[in-house]
Amino acid sequence: MGNREDLLAGAKRCLMEKGYSGTTARDIAAAAGTSLAAIGYHFRTTKALLDAALIEAMEEWGKEIEQTLAADASLDGAPAQRFEATWTRIIESFDRLRPLWAIQFELIAQMDRLPELREAFATANRQAKLGLAAIFEHLDPAADERRAMAVGAFYQALLGGMAAQWLVDPEQAPSARDLLDALRTIGAGLGAEGQTE
Question: Phi/psi class of residue 33: alpha, beta or left (left: φ > 0; alpha: ψ in -120 to 50)?
Fold first, then answer.
């Protein structure tokens, strides 16, 4: 029988090349260099293998983003400079990780038909929010979980929105400098509102 890790690696390659709904058991077996029976032996179904491969790919991507953010957080300079440097690197990653983002949007559209994947996404989402709050704003969820979740949700919305815009039209998607300018404008408006109350 084929190796479980080979099957996961093959499934991840197929996901990136063909998408979730375009990948077949035969595609995975060929990419992994295993038999079709190996999928049943290790995962029972092709769908279970694809779900496991997708979750693993998302975790790997999350760790990569975390490393990127951690590296930029240690940069000297003002928070605005770190923000711009971090988002420049995140935007650069969209080209390389385009298939992973496309798969996530594909699956979000099908979420009502994939309850077990919805649960896995919900768990991953919660961890992502807390992780983003810790990385971007150094918030400790143990100290104030509600605040960490809210801040993390903001960064997650920004990240997902940027990915969506980049997938549709990378030439017109905002740059890191555009994001920084927009935040400054919004912040100034909120600050002015607070002064009038």
Answer: left
Q: What is the pLDDT along the chain (197 residues), one digit of tens a residue?
A: 459 999 999 999 998 888 888 899 999 999 999 999 999 999 999 989 998 898 888 778 777 777 766 665 555 667 888 888 888 888 988 888 888 888 888 888 877 877 777 887 788 788 888 888 887 788 898 999 999 999 999 999 999 999 999 999 999 999 999 999 999 999 998 876 655 54
How many Cα atoms are found within 13 Å in the side-chain-facing hemisphere of 178? Answer: 7
Surface-to-core class of residue 37, CB atoms within 10 Å of its CB (0-12 exposed, 13-18 middle, 19+ buried): exposed
| HSE-up of residue 94 (Cα within 13 Å, Cβ side) | 23
Instruction: Answer yes or no: are the C-beta atoms of 125 and 56 closer than 8 Å.
Output: no
Q: Is the pTM of this model over 0.90?
A: no
